[in-house]
Amino acid sequence: MKAKSLRAAAACALAVAIAFPSAANALGCNGVINPLLAGCTRSDNNDGPQFPYFKVNRISVPSNLAKIEVKEGALMTQIKGRWYPVLSAANGSVTIVESVN
Q1: What global pTM score does this model have?
Q2: Residues 6+ apart with CB under 8 A from 100
Q3: Dihedral sign, CA of 75, 83, 60, 64?
Q4: Helix (H) or strand (E) holding 9
Q5: Partners of 62 in the beta sheet?
Q6: pLDDT tens, position by position, 20-61
Q7: What distances in angstroms separate CA 3 from CA 6, 9, 16, 57, one per listed residue?
Q8: Average pLDDT rounded to a whole number, residues 84-93
Q9: Which one of 3, 55, 59, 96 is most buried, by most CB atoms within 10 A?
Q10: Which residues neighbour 84 within 8 Å (Cβ) at sequence distance 6 or greater?
Q11: Any residues with CB less than 8 A from the CB of 83 and at least 6 apart, and which?
């Protein structure tokens, strides 16, 4: 009886470990292992914006440095000659995407 309950507990723990994604070191998709998602298993090493769980670098800059303009249907700001997409603008600062690469 004790062996059956021990096996059942081990099976439940294994099912929970497989069902929920976990953080990892350079494994899976952008550091996240999710066996239920193709390309995101422990043996995969898929990093970059084309894979799930990708996070862009966000930077907040003072609004006096970022003049927001509509460019090709998107809110953009130009800082030091380079255009950046605007994520949000509030409380005297503008949050931009640093780089997608």
Answers
A1: 0.44
A2: 49, 56
A3: negative
A4: helix 2-19
A5: 93
A6: 555 544 477 888 888 888 888 888 888 888 888 888 777 788
A7: 5, 10, 20, 50
A8: 81
A9: 96
A10: 76, 77, 78, 96, 97, 98
A11: 71, 76, 77
